[in-house]
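User: I'm curious whether this sequence folds into something compact or stays loose and floppy. Could you predict its structure so I can see for myself?
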Amino acid sequence: MAAVLPNQASNSTVSGLARALVQAGRLSAQQADSINKQAANDKLAFIDVLLASGSIDARSLAAFCSETFGYPLLDFAVFNASYIPENIIDSRLMQKQRVVALAKRGNKVSVAISDPTNTHALDQIKFQTELIVEPVIVEHPVLLKLVEKLSQSTEESLTEMIGDDFELGLNDEEMPAAAASEAAAAAEIDDAPVVKFLQKILMDAINMGASDLHFEPFEKFYRIRFRVDGILREVAQPPLAIKEKLASRIKVISKLDISEKRVPQDGRMKLVVSKNRAIDFRVSTLPTLFGEKIVMRILDPSQAQMGIDALGYDPDQKELLLKAIERPYGMVLVTGPTGSGKTVSLYTCLNILNKPGINISTAEDPAEINLPGVNQVNVNDRAGLTFAAALKAFLRQDPDIIMVGEIRDLETADIAIKAAQTGHMVFSTLHTNDAPSTLTRLMNMGVAPFNIASSVIMITAQRLARRLCTCKQPVAIPDDTLIEAGFKEEDLDGSWMPYKAVGCERCSGSGYKGRVGIYQIMPISEDIERIILGHGTALEIEEQSRRDGVRTLRESGLVKVKQGLTSLEEVLGCTNE
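Assistant: Here's the prediction. I'll summarize afterward.
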């Protein structure tokens, strides 16, 4: 039997950097095993214990990693650290994994590491930044000092902006009403650093085109995320001590009760961006285990002024929609999940119809976009002003057009349908997956089929897909894959090419910039009316709509792929067949 070499004795028990050093003969297998066990016992990284043991010096280790793994070696003595970009990698990940983003070029980011076998860290950076990661080897002690310096500067800048004079206040139960009102007034004056920080966060969100802001407290950290183009992105991790002051500031300017932290609250606030532009925010608070989570929805009135052409309707769909909304009476329903753009679609239709000779009234929970010339009412269930109560009042206000924010119950549905049957145009929304299932949803709510058939004139279902950035590139996709996705063989005539997301500075490396609507426009034909009157199923309605030439959401999405507006992956992700 062949003798086992010392360096191979326990080679199978080590991995990563240890294994590479053993295979190169820079460490014995016994040394590697010993260092591995000590690192595990002390809960330290292998590279920390390795350098502390003196088995190899930091400079030699960095040179070895560069040569073995093929990554460039950076001499920090000739590198200007002041050019290091900020906020590419969040502070918590930088400290935990000991990595630093050195530079960003297009959709690539150079990352300083000392252990190139730490692929978990590289994967985390790639996932968080959505960029291509290019590792650069830096000596371990130099990297540790850099991480410490950057972490301290981040904390100091935030503390300077926010203020570190956090004092413990009274508990909720101990704070009397008078003290609560005094605290609210004081919060306006005393928390200037918090005011500046919040204003910066709000402006950043607006400049990034975010739709929502999430302020989330956890046990050991506090994070702020923006939803941009439908995807949540972490943008900041301020000190955990800020959470109470920031929540109080938001609640004060949203006219919420700052002493009440045990139940959810809803409010509104306004940010004046310029003389000609003010943006509203809808604010929602939610008690969680470690504090109040706050979500702010950005309500930009300019969205309703974009016009129907900017929403992404195909020409035939646009013609059908305009024909329906200009009828003197009837009901048009817009369906889709939360965040699919239903409100913007409805406001765009109202904006088209908003003329001096037309009386328009809306009942919403709450009114999201202010439209001059439209009578908007905020529903208040606690005060008894429900959707149904508002609708009853509208019918005594000589309306031409009524918009109901959402049909949630049978009473609201009945009044809305009766309004549509008595000479009014009614717009509303429902949360259903597609247009055909909306009709069966109304029947399941208890609305009589003959009332549905005689009032509903059109249903539109919609989704929002991310729009490809200008950095997009053509991609070759096999015909079998395209056909499986829903394309027909006659579509694959070579006259068009699908595109893929690439990533650049303009789109922050994601490959997408903005969103485009995908729509299913289903007019209620006489054949569909007969199916409704016969208590037909959603499947029967869908089959008839296909015979009427109605495209499904998937088919409408594939049209956007042919036009090069979005990618096939995006359409497959936001439609279901």
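Summary: DSSP finds 21 helices and 18 strands in the chain. Confidence is low (pLDDT under 50) at residues 1-12, 157-190.
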